[in-house]
Write a structure and sequence with these properties.
three-stranded antiparallel sheet, binds fe (ii) ion, mainly alpha, 474 residues
Length: 474
């Protein structure tokens, strides 16, 4: 018997009326579930988890809470409501009607954009799959699982577009999205940050703060797309992304709170003493921040890119908040400053704006992510501790574009390879930092209990108490 997918897959795309699409998804869904069972959260298949599920796009429907087993999660397909007579508002087609179908000449590029975005979604689930074994609390465990099922839904969102608009190629790409594996050498995920490990909860919080925020900026740029189904899909994905970044920001904030509390109790800033007390010292937090920030800003791609120019001019991908900008939205005669190294110094170089759109998005991202670092510093300041976290210079520890491989200190000085080698362990998490953080990770899942290295949250999820049974282990 075939499953009734129109009921099983909540959707607002009239799935039951599109037989071809329904058949395609009927074939893909069991493979997705196999992938989830193999690569989803380790050992969690039988847990009842207090999750929010989107069953429609309106305010009452997009956040329904209840205990569910994750393999039974109703991964749905949602597009934001269509905007009447939506027009293309940037690039060469400015003023034309938005596209409801894929124009033949842009098919390959659009497919590539959708596949690249889609690939990050299952990748992060794979990166995070062992974290449940060392959760610092039930509350955090639930948040991890919430992020995981929603990344799964984001994969559905992209696979829907591939199946609906790209025919056989799209179906093949949908399968390939389930076959690549984060960190695997022979068939890795497409983007490097999604092949890194997320080995501990500090990394998880940094990842959800920094790397899910890359997701936000990519989705915001795609939400401007002339291809209307992509714009509407990514708009809805953004509502979920906000929670992922909240998990990251509040997670790091709670680690900071707890560390500051212990520092004040012991009246010390001695790293050895702080570590002996079982909390994460602030310099180690700074190194984790440096790592995740630098790896994530690489995701925006090369600072000069003819692809970026093409994607913009052809209307496939806009800028962050394209609609709020007051320029001509074609950018043909504009320029932008990117960095390069000349005579051993970082200098600015003026390049055509269209070619620098990766850099434009990266700079918008940096502004947004630095704001949260400021909020973390407020916690430290309130505790009366003279220490400030700082985002590193954007040329620090880069692997893409003109700055790839250039040795730059966190404060932006070009240095020699020898200087780099002498300082790398002060700037990036060392093997011993990672071993120390790993040593703190232990399962703490009694309701209302929290691991020693992290403060409880101020509030529970969906107005539930902090000691609510967010996960029933059965
Ligand atoms: Fe996502
Ligand atoms: Fe996310």
């Amino acid at each position: 018997m075939s499953i009734n997918y129109s009921e099983k897959i909540p959707n607002n795309v009239n799935l039951s009326e599109d037989r071809t699409l329904q058949r395609a998804l009927e074939q893909w869904q069991p493979n997705y579930l196999n992938w989830w069972n193999d690569m989803g959260p380790d050992g969690s298949q039988n847990f009842d988890v207090y999750l929010r599920t989107a069953v429609s796009v309106d305010p009452q429907g997009w956040a329904q809470f209840g205990h569910v087993k994750m393999p039974d999660y109703r991964w749905g397909i949602f597009l934001n409501p269509a905007e009447q007579d939506r027009k293309i508002h940037f690039g060469d087609h400015l003023g034309d009607d938005a596209w409801q179908e894929v124009p033949g000449e842009y098919r390959a590029n659009l497919r590539r954009i959708i596949v690249t975005q889609g690939d990050t979604e299952p990748a992060s689930v794979e990166q995070q799959r062992h974290l449940g074994l060392t959760a610092p609390s039930q509350y955090d465990l639930r948040n991890l699982f919430q992020v995981n099922v929603e990344e799964g839904r984001h994969l559905w969102a992209m696979v829907y577009l591939l199946h609906k608009y790209f025919g056989r190629d799209g179906r093949e790409e949908g399968e390939a999205l389930l076959e690549r594996r984060s960190g695997q050498t022979d068939n890795p995920r497409i983007l490097q940050a999604f092949n890194e490990q997320t080995p501990d909860w500090l990394s998880f919080f940094m990842f959800t703060y920094f790397t899910d925020r890359d997701g936000k900026f990519q989705l915001c740029a795609l939400a401007e797309s002339a291809f209307d189904p992509l714009a509407r899909t990514t708009k809805f994905m953004l509502t979920e992304e906000a929670h992922h970044m909240f998990v990251g920001e509040s997670g790091v904030g709670r680690v900071i709170s707890r560390t500051c509390q212990v520092m004040n109790e012991l009246k010390t800033d001695d790293v050895a003493k702080i570590r002996d007390a079982g909390v994460i010292d602030l310099p180690t937090l700074q190194r984790y921040l440096n790592f995740h920030f630098s790896v994530t800003i690489d995701l925006f791609g090369a600072d000069e890119s003819s692809n970026a120019a093409t994607f913009y001019s052809t209307g496939l991908k806009g800028r962050f908040e394209e609609g709020k900008r007051t320029d001509d939205h074609r950018l043909k005669s504009d320029s932008y400053k990117v960095l390069e190294v000349r005579n051993g110094q970082l200098v600015e170089k003026e390049v055509p704006m269209l070619n620098a759109l990766n850099e434009v998005l990266r700079d918008d991202y940096i502004k947004d992510s630095i704001a949260g670092v400021g909020r973390w510093n407020k916690i430290i300041e309130k505790a009366g501790i003279p220490f400030q976290l700082k985002a590193p210079h954007k040329a620090f520890h880069r692997n893409i574009g003109a700055l790839a491989g250039v040795k730059v200190s966190p404060d932006g000085k070009v240095i020699s390879a020898a200087e780099w080698a002498a300082h790398a362990d002060q700037w990036l998490p060392s093997a011993s930092d990672r071993a120390f953080v790993a040593s703190l990770m232990g399962r703490c899942v009694e309701p209302g209990k929290f691991a020693n290295w992290i403060a409880p949250p101020v509030m529970g999820i969906n107005r539930q108490p902090v000691n609510f049974d967010y996960v029933r282990f059965n």
